[in-house]
Amino acid sequence: MMMMMMMMMMCGQIWWLDSELTCGQSRPLVFTQGHSVCNRSFFPCFDTPAIKSTYTASVRVPDGVTVLMSASRSSYSKQDRVFQFSMEFPVPSYLVALVAGELQHVDVGPRSRVWAEPCLLSCAVKKLGGSVERWLGVAEELFGAYLWGRCDIVFLPPSFPIVAMENPCLTFIIASILESSEFLLIDVIHEIAHGWFGNAVTNATWEEMWLSEGLATYAQRRITTEAYGEAFTCLETVVRLDALHRQLRLLGDNNPVSKLQVKFEQGVNPSTLMNLFTYEKGFCFVSYLSQLCGDVRRFDCFLRDFISEFKFKSVVAQDLIDYFLGYFPELKDAAVAQREGLEFERWLSGCGPPLYEPDLSAGGALTQPVQDLCDVWSSGDAPDLQAVSAFHVSTWSTFQIVLFLDRMLDRSPLPHDVMVSLSTRYSCLFDGLNAEVQIRWLQMVVRNSFYPDLPRVRAFLHKHTSRMYTVPLYEDLVAGVMKCVAVEIFYQTQRRLHPNLRRTLQQILFQTSAAPTNQNSSALPLLPPSPSPQPAATATASSTSGSNGIALRDVNVSA
């Protein structure tokens, strides 16, 4: 059992936010982010997913500060200002998490509550309502009892470096996602699915991260299918698989990062290779296993028994495969693991696209109109506006609009007249929609050098200070002819950015060498404002992505 006595002191992977960087801007806030190998600078530990343990923690805080941890039990001594926590179930070190600040809560179910800064709480509760308990109930019907007791959610400021983190008992989610209800739904359900896949049964090595993310993505889609229907799930899956194939076009089919079993070089941070392949190629392999057994309900039973067999343990891919073939002896006898072109070994160690993708035709009523509209807009320099009028985009869901914009991004650059028509018809509509829609439209504006809508880019980057909504646009601005615009916006907004994000944007804008990843390393200094530059038609710059990396501007997804 790990014992921790923590004071509010500087640690390598604790993110310290001045009050100006919080949502309420009234009190400082601190949180940790342990995935993948960061908690070794938080407390002494064997920082590997192969080892699990229980833990206890005592945290002393100033008056007015509330502390939460990914623990199954907690108590507070007001006299001593000490919070006590204990996790009674064994977890790997990366799932130990802490947040402290001005936090309040509302119960949204018998075993779930929402935590947030006071200014965010009512919005978060309204968005989630009683859905968490509903999703938990569906998941339990599919995969067996929820093992962790509590299923609380805390919304963190835009400085939170990822979209969400599945800390047991206490999911961390970035507050920026609150305005995108469909993305919020998917993200919360995905983290709930991790309660079974990733938290209860964990990948023993980061070289097989797909065992957590691929299985959780499959489970997430089983939950959404049961709760919202097959068409909705197929639409969301199409959006993500589009993004996977977009990455493959950029990387090439022989890039080793497209393997499910990735071999790490010594000293490589596993988080740097966390990509869509771990989620979507992993999902496709799990879907293939489901297809082999011939009955999705039968496969649900397999997953339920797999969790029961391996709960609170760490496993490798061969454990899953051996259990699968033992569970379905008729498949073992049929040598499905060696089926030509679909060999399990090729799935795991081969580069390139998934060897199988599930049938998504059930979502055709939602996806086909999107493709038809893309074809209309791509039919020539002067789109048929009467044909365009037949599509009522204002009635579409967020995922439909996102799919439309992603596919139009794939076709960029577009003729100037097409951009004029797109802006005339849709830009005001997009202004009233969520950030997931807006960022994609603004990426189209930037990639097509469409200056009439440049004020919208400025307004968006002045409003949003999260990594997920800033980095893609800055990378696009720098890669095209608008670098001077990006520099100007950065000068104007840098004081509202977390130092880590500010450092990242400085690297993108000024092509500086990569800064140390340790949170304690000094951020590059604030830069003095410069005279407002005018857009330069000939200014160019390349992406800062290294030869082995992928620029976010090329992916078109935020999580």
Write structural notes for this entry.
Mean pLDDT is 90; it is low at 1-12, 513-524 and 529-559. This protein has helices at 118-128, 131-143, 181-193, 210-228, 230-251, 276-293, 296-310, 317-327, 329-333, 344-349, 364-377, 385-388, 398-410, 416-431, 435-447, 454-463, 467-479, 483-493, 499-510, and strands at residues 2-6, 14-17, 29-32, 52-60, 66-69, 73-77, 82-92, 98-101, 104-109, 112-116, 152-156, 164-165, 170-174, 201-203, 313-315. With 559 residues, it is an alpha/beta fold. The strands form four sheets. A five-stranded mixed β-sheet has the order 9-10-11-13-12. A four-stranded mixed β-sheet has the order 1-4-7-6, with no helix packed on it. It contains 19 helices and 15 strands. Helix 17 runs parallel beside helix 19 (499-510).
Structural class: alpha/beta
Percentage of residues assigned to helices? 40-55%
How far apart the termini lie comes to 34 Å
Unreliable parts: 1-12, 513-524, 529-559
